[in-house]
Amino acid sequence: NPNDATTTLDNSGQSAIGQYLLGLTPGAGQSYSFGVAPEAGTGNAVVSFPTLTGRTYQVLWSTDLLTWFPASALVNGNGSTMQWTDDGTGTGTASSTASKRFYKVSVGIAP
């Protein structure tokens, strides 16, 4: 059913198409997770996220969870876990000096 693509089949809050993009089985109750940890020595945030071939990924950042900005370049997934470090290049200031900063990973289909 084409309408299933935009519905939540397992009450996870994630649409079936969203679960597909993340490499999850729609309706199976799985979740996608990424990690944020301080970099040794600098304290800058390191965002780690699993990738799939055929997908693109971009780290976004926010100070209020309402307005999001691109932090990293768009990268092609290769099936490995990738990392991006917030050293200020994509955010204006290093995360170690920011009072608060939030991250999310945007996933799309590779061209």
3D structure, described in words:
This protein has 111 residues and is mainly beta. The protein is 5% helix and 32% strand. The chain has 1 helix and 7 strands; from the N terminus they run αβββββββ. The strands form 2 sheets. Strands 3, 4, 5 and 7 form a 4-stranded antiparallel β-sheet that branches. Strands 1-2-6 form a 3-stranded antiparallel β-sheet, with no helix packed on it. β1 and β2 form a beta hairpin. It is globular, with a radius of gyration of 15 Å. The chain starts with 15 loop residues before the first helix and ends with a strand. The model has no long low-confidence stretch (mean pLDDT 85).
Q: What's a concise summary of this model?
A:
With 111 residues, the protein is mostly beta strands. Helix content is 5%, strand content 32%.
Helix % is under 10%
Enumerate how many helices there are, as a single number.
1
Over the alpha carbons, how many angstroms does the gyration radius reach?
15 Å
Q: Quote the average pLDDT.
A: 85
SSE class:
mainly beta
Stretches where pLDDT is under 50 for at least 5 consecutive residues are none
Reading the helices and strands in chain order gives: HEEEEEEE
Shape: globular
Q: Give the percentage of residues in beta strands.
A: 25-35%
Question: What is the straight-line distance between the termini?
Answer: 25 Å
Describe the main β-sheet briefly. Answer: 4 strands, antiparallel
Number of beta-strand segments = 7
Walk me through the topology:
Elements: H1 16-21, E1 35-38, E2 45-50, E3 55-62, E4 69-70, E5 75-76, E6 81-85, E7 102-109
Antiparallel strand pairs: 1-2, 2-6, 3-4, 3-5, 3-7
